[in-house]
Amino acid sequence: MTAKTLALRPDPGVPVPETAMVMAAGLGKRMRPLTATRPKPLVEVAGQPLIDHALDRLRAAGVKRAVVNVHYLADALEAHVRRHANGLDIVISDERAQLMETGGGLVQALPHLGDRPFVTVNSDNLWIDGPVDSIRALAAAWDDARMDALLLLVPLARAHCHGGQGDFHLSPDGRIAGRRRPGRLAPFVWTGVQILSPRLITDWPQGPFSTNLFWDRAIAAGRAFGLVHGGLWFDVGTPGAIARTEAILADG
Predict the structure, then answer these.
(1) CB-based burial of residue 159 (10 Å sphere; 0-12 exposed, 13-18 middle, 19+ buried)?
(2) What pLDDT is recorded for position 12?
(3) Which of 48, 198, 211, 250 could tie 102 with a disulfide, CB 3.0–4.6 Å?
(4) Helix H or strand E segment including 118
(5) Tens-place pLDDT, residues 128-157
(6) How far apart are CA 158 and CA 6, in angstroms?
(7) How far apart are CA 113 and CA 66, in angstroms?
(8) Distance from C-alpha of 191 to C-alpha of 204, rounded to nearest angstrom
């Protein structure tokens, strides 16, 4: 069964991971000057802080616990997510002393993530579900016997406000065939949403590092898969992207 088929026909009875990690510790340099006095996850898009869009999607999918990493203007961000938990169990992974990047952030948060597959979302990507709830679709497509990573991907042509050249190539069975080579395009962009198995988070280097380390291992082992997103997706990385995102959303 292909990744596309799974995305359109999720089993509503499949449980969603109870825990998610929300990546929210970045410096937000590309979003300046809006981030001069607030962390990037608190920048508003369509009348709501970016991180609230992510928390709403997690809550709607049935996730119970959100581990949020914090670094830049951490006090403001921590206070906000605790005030706006709305039923989510909020756990803070504190990176005030050192920004750990995405891979190091996962390692630091690992004691809070448990021993079962978990969701991760980037707080600066905004997505609107298509025919089905995207996180539920990931949960339905997850096959623990075959997968260590399942990434929600969007075709490069539908990656709104994204200035990159794509991230991944997919095989017909949904397996990630490889990452983009320098100077070439790749047909799919990672949305910032994925399910990971904690067994993938092992043998890490000291200090900050990228999640690419874990992805490359999973790709090499044939255990990294992609699921194609059927809705809208926006890379809200710059002030200009906010207006473009809001215009598209206003058009429905």
Answers:
(1) buried
(2) 61
(3) 211
(4) strand 118-122
(5) 998 899 999 999 999 999 999 999 999 999
(6) 20
(7) 9
(8) 24
